[in-house]
TrEMBL record:
Protein keywords: Membrane, Transmembrane, Transmembrane helix
Pfam families membership: MFS_1
Organism in which the protein naturally occurs: Nonomuraea jiangxiensis
Entry-linked PANTHER family: TRANSPORTER, PUTATIVE (AFU_ORTHOLOGUE AFUA_3G04000)-RELATED
Recorded GO CC terms: membrane
Transmembrane segments: 42-62, 74-99, 135-155, 162-182, 206-230, 242-264, 284-307, 348-368
Taxonomy of the source species: Bacteria, Bacillati, Actinomycetota, Actinomycetes, Streptosporangiales
Transferase as UniProt keyword: no
Protein name: Predicted arabinose efflux permease, MFS family
């Protein structure tokens, strides 16, 4: 188990570093390369579309093709993306590689790589406590590596440098993929029998979770960090230096909460950790716009950061524990895609609501997230995970 987790954490660290640099520099590189704002928008849309398409394709075919093989192929696509970026290829070729799903527009991605890694982490065969600890480390590594990559992205934009980084990450990822053990693969289908259809036994629970996760992600989109920085400058006149230091401290506190989540879950359970750490986090979020000054708002944001990420590793582990082993890939793909679909609408809605009241985006996000938590608890509190059922 430790060897598999180590390989996946190394893979996540390398990819997080590359994605952190790309998230900062990709748009600037395209602008300097002569792309118009409309063309840059189309390229970003192609990356998002590729993430969606590849995630849904994984849900249907990854287990048949082999998880390690598909994982290596994704890294191969990332390598090709790096080559295309480095040589300054034409727009149509950029769009083709963007549609592969291997690129990301965020420092911490939640696309096809994440789907496969969640499933493989859950397939290590260890006790649930160790699996949840693995998810906590996995997300903490993503946060730290992505932050380090974003800091490196502050260097002057250079397509050859960025392309070279992605080529190295892609090549290293392919080597790591082929070192993964056979135990991460889907359970073998007995001769003469058909592989069960996607989400045959867990369609209902996964659909309900996907719908709830979509609501939570939409609400989170109201207060993404870029919007939060803009709001702090608008409401309190915060400088970019203050905002940058604040975000750095928030990142440290969020990483600590990711590492603390498995400890809490071992004592109270996955679902309770998801719900009852998230609700106070939501209330703190809704209180931010009512702080009398910048110091108070920052203090509330820091208090929230101590709790806000504790549901992330527990949520991933809960989905993997809830569904049968042969349906984990499909469940991870569907629930991750649901979150990815709705999140971009949040900032747009927040911008529309802001003229009606500076507090509205925070209050709506806090109320919607709390409604998500309470609904999640009401629907799933009586559902016992397989590991909790008597043998």
């Amino acid at each position: 188990m430790r060897g598999t987790v180590g390989l996946l954490l190394t893979s996540q660290a390398l990819r997080g570093l590359g994605y952190g640099i790309a998230a900062v520099q990709l748009g600037a590189i395209w602008r300097l390369g002569g792309l118009t704002p409309a063309e840059v928008g189309l390229m970003l849309a192609a990356i998002l579309a590729g993430t969606l398409i590849s995630s849904l394709a994984l849900a249907r075919w990854a287990d048949r093709a082999g998880r390690r093989r598909v994982y290596g192929a994704l890294y191969g696509a990332l390598l090709c993306s790096g080559v295309v970026i480095a040589v300054g290829a034409p727009l149509w070729l950029l769009a083709v590689v963007a549609m592969s799903g291997a690129l990301s527009v965020e420092v911490m991605e939640s696309g096809p790589f994440t789907t496969l890694e969640q499933v493989m982490l859950a397939s290590t065969g260890g006790p649930q406590r160790e699996v949840v600890r693995g998810f906590g480390l996995y997300n903490a590594v993503a946060a730290v590596a992505g932050t380090a990559g974003a800091l490196l992205g502050a260097l002057p934009p250079d397509r050859r440098r960025l392309g070279g980084v992605l080529v190295v990450v892609g090549a290293a990822g392919m080597m790591l993929a082929f070192r993964l053990p056979a135990s991460v693969e889907a359970p073998a289908v007995s001769p003469g029998s058909q592989r069960p259809r996607m989400l045959a036994r867990s369609r209902g629970p996964v659909a309900r979770l996907a719908a709830l996760f979509a609501v939570d992600s939409l609400a989170g989109g109201f207060v993404v960090q870029a919007y939060l920085g803009y709001w702090l400058s608008l409401r309190y006149g915060a400088t970019t230096q203050t905002i940058g230091i604040t975000f750095a401290v928030l990142g440290v506190l969020q990483t600590a909460s990711l590492l603390a989540a498995p400890v809490v879950a071992a004592r109270v359970g996955l679902l309770r950790t998801m719900v009852f750490t998230h609700i106070p986090s939501n209330l703190l979020l809704a209180a931010v716009p009512f702080a009398p000054g910048l110091a108070g708002a920052v203090a509330l944001l820091m208090a929230r950061a101590c709790l806000s990420q504790m549901d992330v590793p527990t949520r991933q582990a809960y989905v993997m524990a809830l569904v049968p082993e042969q349906e984990r890939t499909a469940a991870a793909a569907v629930t991750n895609t649901a979150r990815y679909l709705t999140r971009p609408a949040g900032p747009a809605l927040a911008g529309v609501l802001l003229p009606l009241g500076l507090a509205l985006p925070f209050v709506i996000a806090g109320v919607a997230k709390t409604a998500y938590d309470l609904t999640l608890w009401r629907i799933f509190r009586s559902v016992r995970l397989p590991s909790e059922r008597p043998s």
